[in-house]
Each structure stands twice: as structure tokens, then as C-alpha cells.
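Tutorial, part two.
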Amino acid sequence: MDDIDFADDLAIISCKHQHLQEKTSGNILERIGLKIHAGSTKLLRINTANDGPITQGGNGLEETFTKLGSIVNNHGGTDADVKTRIGKARVAFLQLKNIWSAMAIATQTKYRIFNSNVNSVLPYGSETWRTTKKNTRKVQTFINTCLRCILKIQ
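Running the prediction step on this input gives:
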């Protein structure tokens, strides 16, 4: 199997670094009428000995990218993904700063707003995260910090 075609994507599969480089070179692709845009082409390596660059049109292909909201890379780690999700949840939390400081809104209501608008952003894609103590601690620390802010506990 050399390639897998999707609706608007093409996955080129190869067992050898040299073969993949040949498949992405312009001559072979032009013969079959395919043009690859190096800026939107991504590379995912799995269990490879040769980590040399794969180039297309003189540019190296990107090896870390976001797909369906999750960061994908050849290391398979989730630290960057966890950090990104916490950052997005932090932005959602900060956008609601006026609500957290409002005295007229009950604490229970603030908690419900937190769960629906902030805590729902945080675990998106978490099904694919490695469950490590470090990642669990990062997420729990963020949640505790937010709740302390809502409850005005320093």
C-alpha cells in the first residue's frame, strides 16, 4: 500500500526514508498530475531510524501539527497538548473576569458558569492524553487556581 486517499487529503506511506523522499519529489508527482503545497503538507514518523529531513520543493516538511484540536508529533507526547488546552481554558476563564468579580451573582451560579464555559474547554481531546501524574497535577492546579479566584481565596 503506497497511499491512502481521504476526502481532501492524501496519506503517503513508506517504509524507507529514501522512498518517501522520492515520492514527495516534484518529478514523480507531476507525472500523475499532483501538486503538493509544502506549507500545508505534514510529516508523521513512527518508529523510524532515519530522522533526516523530508523535503518538498526545497522546504522541510513540518513534523508537529494540530489535527482535530490535538497536537500531533512523532514523539507521541501529550505535554504540549495539555499545555495548549490549559491555555485555551485560561483564555475562556479570563474572558469571564467580570462575572467572577460580580457580587450580585451567587457562588453556585458562578460555579455552574465555570463548569459550562471553562471546564468544558479543558478536557477536549483528553481521551488521547497519557495519564501521568505530571499532566494530572497541571490540570488540577489550573482548576484549583480558577476556583480560588471565583471564591476569592488567596
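The two ends are 59 Å apart (CA to CA). In part three we will examine how such features are distributed along the chain.
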